[in-house]
Amino acid sequence: MSRFVRWTTTVAAAMLTAGCVGGSSGEGGDDARGGPGSSAVPPAAASSGLPSSLTSQKLEWNRCKGPSAPGGDWRCATLKVPLDWAKPEGETIGLGLIRSRASGGDRIGSLLFNFGGPGGSGISMMPLYTNTVAELHERYDLVSWDPRGVGASQGIRCRDDKAIQAAETIDATPDDAGEEKAYLDDAAGFGEGCRQAAGKLLAHVSTADTARDMDLIRQVLGDRKTHYFGISYGTELGGVYAHLFPKNVGRLVLDAVVDPTADMVGHAKNQARGFQRALDNYLTSTGQDPEQGTRKIADLLKRLDEKPLPASSDRALTQTLALTGIVVPLYSEEGWPTLTAALKAAEAGDGSELLRLADRYNERSATGQYGTTTHAQRAISCLDSRQRPTAEETRRLLPEFEKISPVFGEYLGWDTAGWCHDWPVAGQFDHPEVSAPGAAPVLVVGNTGDPATPYEGARKMADGLGKDVGVELTWKGEGHGAYGSGSRCVDSTVNAYLLNGTVPKDGTVCS
């Protein structure tokens, strides 16, 4: 089972990986370089209430390691953070960080990035995003990290590759009691695998934990305020950070915004609505009637539920894998021609193209090895959410889901029952608290054609942050995310805010 991840277009399209962790070869020593908003000794450390063993850490920035490690001036380090933030003087874990120093003069400070997921690796993604944020790089150190439970930060792996591939044959839209039992047993087995793999860390990978990690990153880097760019799930993280540390908010950009008012079922409905909207726009672009085109795709999926299609490998295209393959090109308008070719091939009896797209999404290599983004995503989101819909409750919801989307509704409806079924640790809240009275203005960017995080969430985030804090910018475009997607209006507005502190009028629209 794989949830439609709330994550940046570039990652969804490329499923990028890199192996960068801090080393000990002693190539650091550049931490004292200052600039506006920065100091060698973090001024907030003394009043944070945290032990000096955390706030006075000296990071060793060394060349990143691994076969895909970036060159140039990218450096990696390991930050020590409390396992349990309720016991800051207790056991610690290591967070992997990556940084590239500002390329020009008049440095502002550090700009932290989270690219979404939850479960996405900032260490892998940050170097690949450099060209997109080249103008920002002139005055900011670009900084990202693998959140706790991800990659270089004690990454969680709940299943081996063989078990992951075996689970792909389980019907994620069960049609009878036997399929339903297999689906829920598989979900429970995944959770047990996470418990065995992560141990006590599993209860300490929440969004609030990571927000507290962010503030320690700020202190150790020497920044008076947190400047931050959050994409997709990264917007939820940014909202939670603003709520916990409103006085430490510098310039925050939240792009491709997760609706902070939605619970687990609400998020699933939002995604069903968003992906159906994107599918309708795609079908219209090809000259098809959206209703008829949707019915045709739904019929294809129904046939695959009864009989999977052969593919070019020794594997078959199941209904669930086909649905995953359809999702990938909808993350960006540039992927629409790929979707056309894949659907045409499937209608002709060849499931290879949709399977290839699904494998990309599921981080499956040609040799059958899988990534672990979904493992961390599930661990984080199931700790965040206390909602645990039963199969009976889900069955009652299915008609509503299927009305929202004949293609995606049933899958996302059942996902609410299976995703955190019998999870080993209790969830923390129904939805995140993002109110941030007294914080500096936060720029919230929504895209009307966003499939994974529908644009309605941007207004709800802006309102949730509070009066004079949340400032909404809307782009009438397609794809997941707005910045760097081709709108000079969006890019220039965001850059002016981050570089000069220029706050646009709330409700500004870029068309």
Tell the overall outline.
globular
How many individual helices?
18
Strand order of the largest sheet: 2-3-4-7-5-8-9-12-13-14
Number of strands: 14
Helix content: 40-55%
Description:
With 511 residues, the protein is α/β, with parallel strands linked by helices. The protein has helices at residues 9-14, 52-55, 122-125, 134-137, 161-167, 177-198, 207-221, 233-244, 264-285, 290-306, 319-330, 336-347, 352-361, 373-384, 391-404, 409-418, 456-465, 488-500, and strands spanning 6-7, 62-63, 75-82, 92-100, 109-114, 116-117, 140-145, 226-231, 249-255, 309-310, 316-317, 442-449, 470-478, 508-510. It has a ten-stranded mixed beta sheet with strand order 2-3-4-7-5-8-9-12-13-14, with helices on both faces. A two-stranded antiparallel sheet has the order 1-6. β8, α8 and β9 (249-255) form a beta-alpha-beta unit. The chain starts with 5 loop residues before the first strand and ends with a strand.
List the helices and strands and how they pair.
Layout: E1 6-7, H1 9-14, H2 52-55, E2 62-63, E3 75-82, E4 92-100, E5 109-114, E6 116-117, H3 122-125, H4 134-137, E7 140-145, H5 161-167, H6 177-198, H7 207-221, E8 226-231, H8 233-244, E9 249-255, H9 264-285, H10 290-306, E10 309-310, E11 316-317, H11 319-330, H12 336-347, H13 352-361, H14 373-384, H15 391-404, H16 409-418, E12 442-449, H17 456-465, E13 470-478, H18 488-500, E14 508-510
Parallel strand pairs: 5-7, 5-8, 8-9, 9-12, 12-13, 13-14
Antiparallel strand pairs: 1-6, 2-3, 3-4, 4-7, 10-11
